[in-house]
Batch of 2 targets.
Target 1
Amino acid sequence: MAPPVSRRSFPAMSTTVELTGVGIADRDLDQAAGLARLLAEEWERRFSRFRPESQLSRLNAANGEPCSADDTFLGLLETAISAVQRTSGRFDPSVLPALEALGYDRGIDRLKAAPPSIRIPEPLPGAGVSGWDLVQIDRDKGQVTLPPGMRIDLGGIAKGAFADLLAGEFAAWPGGSVDVGGDLVVWGAGPGETCWAIGIEDPAHPERDALVIQAPEASQVGIATSGTHRRRWRAGSQEFHHLIDPRTGLPTRGGMRSVTALAPTATVAEIAAKSMLIAADEPPLSDLFGASVAALASANGHVELLTSVASDNDGIEPLTSIWRAT
Amino acid sequence: MERARPAGSASRAVQERAEREAGARRALFIASVAGLVATFGVVAASDSPLRAIDEDRPPPIGEAVSSRRVVAEVPILSVDGQRVETVVHFIAPEPGTTAPRLRTRAS
């Protein structure tokens, strides 16, 4: 007999968090959802840029002065800094001023409901790798100092990391999944016969799937998607999306509409997906930062799978295209 | 498995306890994040090389998907990059088939 499958969801981080438990009693899932809500509230008190009292908002307002932060905040910030360096700045959370200059200085629902009146700004690129080199983290004092003028948004990576956090909390379940606004972690037994099936949204037709991922009883798989077709808003006669190219300070104009990455964690998958989307008009990145595969959906309807390849030496092999369809 | 409490009915003491319990687990989470940072840039190395699926080759994943086209199978490595954690299949959905409830999407 198939194990019971139950789900609980709640709003958080301007999206929906959903827990799926396989082989878990309803009462236990209720309790798990209660803990997840508590942790989500903690997460937002750290990482929300829309809460003036959050650790992130206080850091962004510090303008070059040291700011206190807890270990979890500092840990994710260190992860972000590593990602900036390893992606040569393609992943860059310091694009926040550029994002706000385009009007995205409030929740997306409010932004869509009341389009901002803005003057199209001069490009405000991110700080670049050199700017991030100036960030100082003092773990002993629990302090971080950004260079004057640097302000950051950890929203995307924070969602992936929150999915990983919950997956760690509930890893003892026979099987389960965490969905934080489309950033996923699945582990253990799936709700089907023995597997997990996860659709990859087709950005051209969001009601459909471009592909379906099928994972057998897995230890853990993290999946994240970045796309230009959501979090869009109008300002005057122009339409913008939220994925800013750090080199120009404007929404990326590459040919990809979405990138989905698979990795052991949703955090890595999030970094890989966003970096590849930002750099879609450039030669492929030399590797996927620990992610194993990425599915690219282009503006003209192509879907392509790229993956890392085996290497017998220390050299980095280029990504390999293993499947492509129109 | 440790038991969590619903937020709505939890007293302050219960909430504080839940947060203390969570704090210990978060320390492990931070350590695991630090571990994955170390794996950035490591090219996937696998004993079982990935491959696109040949049309003539039957899908190796059972009856549940035999009516769909498996286009690729890809290993997912462990966080330390040292072993294949699992192998996933990519399937081209066909009209009329039931879409998975779980979806990854841009957010």
Note: Chain A touches chain B through 101 residues (CB under 8 Å).
Target 2
Amino acid sequence: MKSIKLVIFLLTILWLLSSCLVGFAQEKVITFARPEDIQFMDPYDNINITNLIIDYLVYDRLVEYNPETGTGFVPALATEWSVSPDGTEYTFKLRQGVKFHNGEPFNAECVKVSLERFVNEKLRRGSDWETLKEVEIVDDYTVIVRYKQPSVLCLTTSIQAPMLPAKAFKEKGVALFDNPIGTGAFTFTEWKRGQHIICEKNPDYWGEPAYIDKFIYLPINEDSTRLAAVLTGEIDIADTMPPDQVPLAEAEPNVEIFRMLAWDQIYLGLKVDTPPFTDKKFRQAVTLALDRENIVKFILKGGRPSTGNIPQGVFAFDDSLTPVKRDVEKAKQLVKESIYDGREIRIIVPTGWYPKSKDVAQAIQAELMEVGINATLEILDGATFAEKRAAGNYDIYYTGASQPGDVDSFIWMRIHNDAMASGYINEELNKLIEDQRQEVDSEKRVEMLRKIENIVNTEVAPHAFVYQMEHLYFQRTGITGYRYYGNKCPDLRYVHYGE
Amino acid sequence: MKENIKKTEEITKLKKRSQLVTRLMQSKFFVIGLIVCALIVILSVIAPFIVVHDSKLPSLANSLQPPQYFSKGWSGNILGADNLGRDVLTRLLIGSRYSFIISVSTVFCAIVFGVFLGLMSGYYGGWLDNLIMRFADIQLSIPQLLLAIAIVSVLGPSIPNLIIVLTITTWPQIARLIRSSVLVVREMEFISASKVLGANDLWIMFSQILPNVMTPLLILGSQQIGFIILVEAALSFLGLGVQPPTPSWGVMIADGRDYISTAPWVVLAPGIALMITVLAFNFLGDGLRDALDPKMKT
Amino acid sequence: MRKYIIKRILLCFLVLFGVSVISFGILHLTPGDPARLLLPDGSSQQEINELREKLGLNRPVQVQYLIYMRGAIKGDLGNSLYFKKPNLDLIKERIPATLILTSAAVFGSLLFSLPLGIIAGVKQGTFIDLFAMLFALLGQAMSPVWLGILMIFIFSVKLRILPSFGYGSIQALIMPAVTLGLPLAALVTRLARAGTIDVLSEDYILAIRAKGIGEKKIITRYVLKNVLIPITTVVGLQFAVFMGGAVVTENIFSWPGIGKLAISAIYGRDFPLVQAIMLVVATFFVSINLLVDIVYTLLDPRLKFN
């Protein structure tokens, strides 16, 4: 009996010790969890936007988003900048006295080595910098970024092109990114794939120092687990939370909910060159049949019905537009008047890419059926969906788009000239899209972008926009200093428990 | 003389059959299992005729309606509504047809394949055993997901194709289980006795060995029915089987997962239905095994 | 016996070959272009083709296969298209976690359900028997998804005695292991119980009892040995299946195992990685099955494999 008691006693001590070990650290730690795991840390070769979270901590960029407004730019590693009148040259004056985590100094050479990667290598972010010609070093702290054609996107795209250490990169190449070195407020300390990434405060940071000592990123894919972890306090911030769990978070006094409108929208792509989509009446019927309000209200429980391809919060957003109001009778009428012969209309839907896609798709199918369109759903895994869409093997496709703050890449890749095999080629539209890319005058560009949006809306081609997504964070009360943007990647350099 | 022997043989046969039936009826398990299974089958067959609501049409304003039980008579949402406002009870009844067909067909086909191959493998041994078992190894190494995506994209998402995928991934387990039991039974004396008497291999396999390996087979088989429904859920979730908005229990369980804490009825209804079905099949299997157990033959 | 083992090991290679051919075939048959998925949504066909060229995806299937196998034989399982790292490294990173979880689940289930089933079979009709049957029922009908989420809510959120995620401590292992192992435990309980009832009703048991041999010895000598044969089969199968990746459980508890890797590789049509994972998993299968067959002969010396 005695020995059993002893064993139990020892086990309990062991148990307590192992759970206490975490609490021993007196340092300030913030733990952040998100569904996706970070697969690689090369910011230039990555289409997975989750990386930005760590990129913000470990690297710096030439400019930053204005933290007050969320758009517009403020100096970071560049202290001032100017654009040549024809829009092909951007001159940056660089900050002096900045050191990388490995001691290397930051200067013009670093900018050149970093940005010219887009010229020398084939990178996944390459399309952002397609027209880049070269980076000229004027002196140690002045560079000229030169484009082949006028560009309006230099500053926007530079947010995701942080500055890399020239010498280290020349030595190690992409192996550098197994242990990234930047100039940021945090150093990259530990990376266990599938488990965590740990970043520690950089005491020699050139800018305002961070408040916390350690930041831990955790990939927790399961929504319920993330919720449980933030309810118990095991993590401090839970990202990308589903609206259905809001009541549970509200019930817990130590947890707050932060909602923001993301720049992502969901839309339907129509196969414009195939009957009955060739008939504008039919396309109008499709957009009139959608019950955007109720989809947002009941299925998504957050977000807003779309008004066009420019989401709220993004450059050139037109707040005078209203969403298309559902009109079943008119839609039915239009369907009857159109050339529609009653054939099956196939909607392809990818699984796993967007929240509640199955539910929204089913609602849309029912709404189309209600106005007399014989719609069926084809739910496909992502890869198969991408293939079919590219091959034009669809009547309607359901998809979404994330935005980086400027719609250029969206309209270029998805609308311009028969994009996604939609069959939609509108010369006027194409010219506008090509022109706006080079229009340096902001106001003129806004006009052009809104005109493009207008054409897409009135023609209902090639897209019918459905809704703009809401993004939810559950965090422990007292957390402050975070900067959340519509691209769903938070800037957490200054997060801490405040007053 | 011959006539008398023939008559005795016939009478013995009849006696055995009625003995079997009596034994089956005596087993409480079997009777309960049979009744519940029959109930489920009948309900799923008449489902389309007795349901009040539409099983597929969303009604967004009715989203996540809690169960109204009989407060509105038969026309309310007796067991509540799912997140698209569809009546849970209706989807449960209609969905039973798909779940039932898929899981029972799969288990049946897998048993047919698995038992046959397992018997051959265990009985003959040698190169045939190696061939079949290595093939089973290959089969088990291929992820079910990959196979499902491949078959469905080539042949199209349909219920028969789903059954094919599920059968392919299930037969190796059954074959291996049968084989291991056969290995034991084949060494027993009464088998050698039959062999000496000149009985042919197939007859030995099916009428002597098979009844003795029923126990693990029936247990695994009845377990698989519930399991397959859950696998079907996972695959249907990816559009690899039952296409939305068509309901099936598996789909309801998978879709309802997000609402476990806020609207538990969405998941509880199919979950409990699944539990009852699994129980019924367990009882059926246990009762069958009790009745067929050759050791109990006198 | 030794000859048999050698023959089996040789056959392993045949199996691996078969797996590689079939998996290659399936992967390339399925629609889905890894190059398209590696580039941002909306990239031009030209960009995609360039990437395909660079990754060697435009060469004929047979050539791609031979190149891959040539490397595989030397131990080089290729590089992941997505991670751009050697597949073997990626797999090695995650296999230990899966191994730990699988072992915990399998041995935990066995430890619990084998005695439970046998006792239930011996004491038919008693409370233990009822409990065992109920346990078996729940284990079979309960979706691991619910079980996992439910347990997290009870033990992490309400009671705060177990962590909801994580890897590295015993506490973090408990819930995932239970979630993974419960269906197996249910099955083993039923098999053990039924097997026990079967054996105890045999004629020769009466004779042995008459000889005066104690109940305990009967159980350990006769019941256990007979019951273990189908159970070993099932356990072996499940162990091998889990090693292929207990995707659902790993997902719920954020367990850094190989399941998630395999799933995302399949979704991303990361051909080399899927191949590599399947080869590794196949190796596990054949080894475990070989082990199981050897265990049979230990359990019952009469069993021969010709």
Note: Chain A is about 30% helix and 25% strand.
